[in-house]
Amino acid sequence: MMKRYKTILATLMMIALLAVAFALTARRCYTLEKEACFNTLTNYTTELADKIHQDFSRDLEHLRFISRVLGQFGLDDFRNAKRVLSSFEEETLISRLEILYPDGRVMTNQGSFVSAGGDLSFDQLQALGEHISGRSRDLMDPERLVLREYVPVVSGGETVALLCGVVDLDRLPQLYRVQAFEGRTQSYIIDSSTGDFLMDTWHDELTNVSVMTTRPPKAGYSFEQMAYDIGHMVSGSTVFRSRTADEYFYCYYEPVGTQQWMVLLSVPQSVAFARLHSFMAAVYFLAAVMVLVLVLYFMWMLINLFKESHEKASQLMQVRYMYEVEKILFNAYLNPADIHRALWKIAQVMTAQYTFLLIRNDGLTDRYFSWGSAGGELSLEDLDAAAFQILPCLREEGRLLTYHPRSSFESSPDLIGLVDRLGLRNLAIVPVIGSNDEITGLLGAFNMKQRWNNTSLLECVTLSFAMMIHNMQTFQSIKNMGMIDGLTGLLNRNSYLAGLSTIEPSQFRSLACVYMDVNGLHELNNHLGHAAGDRMLCTLAEELKIAFGNKNTYRIGGDEFVAICKNMSKDEVFRKTKELKEAVLEQGYYASIGIEWRDRDCNINAIVKVAEARMQEDKRCYYQKDVHNRRVREMNHQLEQMILEKQDADAFLSVIASSFKGVYFVNLDTDEVRHIYIPEYFEKMLDETGQKFSQALLMYARTSVYPDFVPRFAELCSYDFLEKQLESSAVPEIIYRKMNGVWLRLQVFKFKKYHPGSRETLWVFEETEPPESIT
């Protein structure tokens, strides 16, 4: 074995030495040929710049002579002007002559007049004196690009017209052909003041020098340096890659000396280095033969050396890896940080930049975990959207492994956008199957450095994750039953007693207790049933959470609620309690409340007892006052009205339920929702998102609606965008198709209470026919 290793090492050293020798030879040859290329370009560029300068200077001198003739004869007699223009014979660059009069008329060389319109301004051009214009459209043929050489026509000491020599830019490539490199050189004239090309022998149309920003420069060169040189009329060189020819072009540019023009010559690398390529082809062929022989010999030994050991190492690694992941996840339901450790372990083994676990419950994402080598976590919205799109493929194939995500997801624009946003280069995902053969999670990794032929390294640990998910869900269910009130979602009495036992008075500047008892629950249950009483308790619980949050608010009995306020000022406690009582009254209910606030002697049990006693006193006063009797009568009347309204609403809903799939009142300021008719599945989504309508609607779109319609739902959930549509008196709507094939129409209306302080809207979901374009 040692002898084989020495042979391999010697072979590697020989290959390395040969590679270095050939590389140094190629580099030296390339340097010499590049210097020769730039020397040739420099000489021809200088010659071309001189020729262009001489030609335009001669043209201007010719125009000066004609303008003096026109000034002597005068321009009042148009026949004289026509005779002068028509006698012009085309020389060098100028194709024809024109005269621009102060009134905006232009006399052509045929003696006819055309209007310059808004294209030419006599006053502006006169102020410039003798000059050559930038690239512009020909008045006679707007499809043609020209230059205009202007010389004032002076008569009696005043400029009476402007003589214009029109230069047809289509003629320039014919006049300025360069014979360097056997005539395979491209020539350009650039107006550095605008960046416009005045001549381009490579492309069919004239563009702007800015297009070169799309052509990647070769190392050591930059478009910024070229742009600086051209802008400051400095000669220089550059090398860029042409996408059309798919090769590098070597360029040299030089000021013309006329206007702010630069002349640029370029030559393809295949032409400039033709001799070098022939020589290097022979050198490379020799090198390739030698290296190939050595590499084949090396590979033969290498394959024989590692084939046996690799299989054994892979098997051992997989067993060790499975055991370590299982060990890490054993108590992960108690310590979720262990899940991140397990994902880190998977990332190590699979050489992945990111790994993630989505835990699903009832078809929705329940929890998610991710690990990334750059730190931080992935977005739940991104992961959830990806899971929803990929899930059908997983159900069909059982796994997903792709090293070309864009082509794999070309049928889903949302997934392509996600691929670009996360920078996905490759992706592997496997489902985590629960005890009932349902998908309880998705385990994935992406941007793996090593290329894998299958997803076995993910699949072999899914059983450990399935057991962990089962344990986590069971543990959470038991914990919630013991610590959370099932009706209101507040912490229950067990949580209350446990929380009190952990409060140390010395830890807080102040402590307060707000003790609340609901009045009229018994009467409400008797008149409208326990469902109405439950709604009242839930309403009071929500108002309590709004006032004091849900971290230290409890339902400790049938109609008793407690809020513990830590480090809260006395004024703030009483203010929030007042707002709570007013909010409860606005809902048509009444609650007796007792408050005790202390910033010394902060024994929590004593504080609660005082608050409870004050609540009882408030309750006693409420029932003793005559106002209570009036409120009882009012409540009875309200209850009777509510019973009638409920019966009317039930009758109405029984009629429209077959057509209307949801009717909601949504406050755009708070994202809160009230419903007239709500399907059970959407009610679960509202609970899942904390009663936030926009979040629940996006969840509904991602899980129940065809992906093509999901972006439209995202627009409506941007309430500022929605408000602009409502303010324009339009009725925003979406006609969309659900996954089950049913077509629905969603319309949003202003509600009668809609105003800047409370933007109440009505959202109606109704069955409809498919659009005509679909049918």
Automatic annotation (TrEMBL):
Q: Which PANTHER family match?
A: DIGUANYLATE CYCLASE DGCM-RELATED, REGULATORY COMPONENTS OF SENSORY TRANSDUCTION SYSTEM
Pfam families referenced in this protein's UniProt entry, alphabetically: GGDEF
Tell me the GO molecular function terms.
diguanylate cyclase activity
Protein keywords: Membrane, Transmembrane, Transmembrane helix
Stretches that traverse the bilayer: 279-303
Has the keyword Transmembrane helix been applied to this entry? yes
Q: Which Gene3D superfamilies match?
A: 3.30.70.270, PAS domain (3.30.450.20)
NCBIfam families documented for this protein: GGDEF
Q: Which residues form the GGDEF domain?
A: 509-635
SMART domains for the chain: GGDEF
Protein name stated in the entry: Diguanylate cyclase (GGDEF) domain-containing protein
